[in-house]
Design brief:
The protein has 273 residues and is α+β, with helices and mostly antiparallel strands. The protein has a domain of 154 residues: Jelly Rolls (Sandwich), CATH 2.60.120. It is built from 13 helices and ten strands. It starts with a strand and ends with a helix.
């Protein structure tokens, strides 16, 4: 299994968190859980070899070669494939980075996976077909970035208020009360909720919960043992029961079971970037 990260084009960088290519001669490793945990990042997936199964809360969705948009999620996704050569590109946007590019209300995409022509119409169909006809991965990477930058220039939906709020939550790993956002911005909770649902898909409270979870998930990804993972527990959660409940909601496992028993090399590598 090879997961390699690519430096995106300069003008595109403010809107994305990571750009990567996954390739494997045997598909998703059969001994690996291959779990994608919530990270607050909507995604564009270019699947160019084999097909993938996405399993969310026992619901299975099969994706064949093509272009897909994955909205923000607040629960984990299991990813499986047949045991043959597999390749796909992932573009992970910042929590509010997909809306300025596509102009689609993110609330309509939450916890869903769309074929490109369903969510993007003619643009999605044309881009999907061109990507299918490009043979080299480097050509696909160049073409999709070029198309996304063109969309970004056309739509021009930047919003400094949402940018400030998301950055504030992210830098504090979710430890910012919504009342504090109200005080800092001068806007009501109701208005901020509406703004977040348009640009992110979630309310500020839900996104803050994902940032808190990611603080500990990345500790696991770095190989820290369970007892060290809990060191800062009470700075982020009311108590251990609250931590366990949130962790299980986002991974399907208790923190102890996950850190001691779950093999998820795909998720580990993905979260370290």
């Amino acid at each position: 299994m090879d997961l390699s990260f690519v430096q995106p084009r300069r003008e595109f960088r403010p809107y994305i968190k990571s750009l990567w290519v996954f390739e494997s001669a045997i598909g998703m490793p059969p001994t690996d859980t291959s779990l994608a945990a919530p990270n607050g990042r909507p995604k564009l997936i270019i699947l160019y070899e084999n097909s993938l199964e996405s399993i969310v809360e026992d619901r299975v969705q099969v994706s064949r070669e093509g272009l897909y948009f994955v909205g923000n999620r607040d629960s984990s996704t299991l990813i499986r494939s047949s045991s043959r050569k597999t390749g796909f590109i992932g573009i992970e946007f910042s929590p509010h980075g997909a809306y300025p590019v596509f102009g689609i209300p993110m609330l309509e995409t939450v916890n869903r996976l769309f074929d490109s022509d369903v969510v993007f119409g003619p643009w999605g169909r044309e881009v999907r077909e061109t990507l299918r006809n490009l043979r080299e991965v480097g050509q696909k990477l160049h073409f999709i970035q070029d198309q996304l930058v063109r969309l970004l220039r056309k739509n021009q939906r930047d919003n400094s208020l949402i940018d400030f709020c998301v950055r504030t939550l992210e830098l504090a790993h979710g430890r910012v009360a919504i009342k504090e956002l109200e005080r800092k911005t001068g806007y009501s909770r109701r208005y901020l909720d509406l703004l977040f649902r348009q640009h992110v898909g979630f309310s500020p409270k839900v996104l803050a919960g994902i940032f808190r979870f990611q603080k500990f998930y990345r500790k696991w990804a770095r190989g820290l043992p369970y007892h060290l993972l809990k060191d800062e527990l009470y700075d982020y959660y009311y108590d251990q029961a609250h931590f366990t409940k949130e962790f299980k909601r986002m991974t399907g496992y208790s923190p102890r079971k996950f850190t001691l028993e779950v093999s998820n090399e795909f998720g580990r590598r993905l979260s370290l970037n």
